[in-house]
Write a structure and sequence with these properties.
transmembrane helix; CLN6 protein; transmembrane; membrane; 1% strand; 11 helices; two-stranded antiparallel sheet; CLN6; single chain; mainly alpha
Length: 292
């Protein structure tokens, strides 16, 4: 028998262990994603501005701070429950990078969303925004573009790449030789919808379709490879895999709905056209916010 290792060696005795469906972790994971990530810009908009002045953190910022603490904790707990010993060093580095990227995003996203109150329009580029293009001196525009880079590019990359990597690492341990273990309980079926809808928001708003689709293809390849060995997904792996499948269908429906939107087409040129929900909001629903 192999000697147990804390840094990635697979133990012989845990090769074919299976895990029950982690209802508590998946429920908390889905709930906090909806409340602390999707809900943070909504909380910032609907709560009275007098409670959170523009020169202070908003309610959404506090949501983001909580997300940056709770999410890596839940990811670590998920890894701990894997029936196989996974590469710990890679997990630790991914978690550290995740926290750093999400923290960078916290600052950039806070300022960018606060700019909505000053008339900033997310469906336009930084230099095309009326409140930005007339700034003097013009070097201030470069500073806002730097802020946008930290928010939309660097922050998103350091946040989402390790996030999907950890999910995939966990997914590699979700296989069992017992076909009966691959059945999903009713609770898992009920969670698939909310989980998939959140991943749709994550991919579209984060503009990370390439990262998502590569992760999905890697999961498909792994499923086919393990099937040749007579292994099938357990209930946790099946839940994650079905969530990703439904996410792809939701993304396709979203793109199809906005396919002929000329303004969003200008904002998102190129072969991959996936508009951000908040760009759609500022373009088509900002009048509701202005009336409020």
């Amino acid at each position: 028998p192999s000697v147990p290792s804390r840094h990635g060696a697979v133990k012989a005795e845990d090769t074919f262990k299976t895990s029950p469906f982690h209802l508590d972790l998946w429920f908390y994971f889905t709930l906090q994603n909806w409340v602390l990530d999707f809900g943070r810009p909504i909380a910032m908009i609907i709560l009275p501005l007098e409670w959170f002045p523009l020169n202070k953190p908003s309610a959404g910022d506090y949501f983001h701070m909580a997300y940056n603490v709770i999410t890596p904790f839940l990811l670590l707990k998920l890894i701990e429950r894997s029936p196989k010993t996974l590469p710990r060093s890679m997990v630790y580095v991914s978690i550290i990078t995740f926290v750093m990227g999400a923290s960078i995003h916290l600052v950039g996203d806070s300022v960018n969303h606060r700019l909505i109150f000053s008339g900033y329009q997310h469906h336009l580029s930084v230099r095309e925004n009326p409140i930005i293009r007339n700034l003097k001196p013009e070097t201030l525009i470069d500073s806002f573009e730097l802020l946008y880079y930290y928010d939309e590019y660097l922050g998103h990359s350091m946040w989402y790449i390790p996030f999907f990597l950890i999910l995939f690492i966990y997914f590699t341990g979700c296989f069992t030789p017992a076909a009966g273990q691959g059945r999903m309980p009713l609770a898992a079926l009920l969670l698939v919808g909310p989980s998939s809808l959140y991943y749709w928001y994550l991919v579209t708003e984060g503009q990370i379709f390439i990262l998502y689709i590569f992760t999905f293809f890697a999961m498909m390849a792994l499923v086919m490879h393990q099937r040749r060995k007579g292994l099938v997904l357990d209930s946790n792996g099946l839940f994650l895999f079905l969530s990703f499948i439904l996410t792809l269908l939701l993304i396709a429906a979203w793109v199809g709905w906005l396919w002929n939107d000329k303004t969003l087409r200008k904002k998102y040129p190129g072969v991959i056209y996936i508009p951000e929900p908040w760009a759609f909001y500022t373009l088509h629903m900002s009048n509701l916010h202005a009336a409020k």
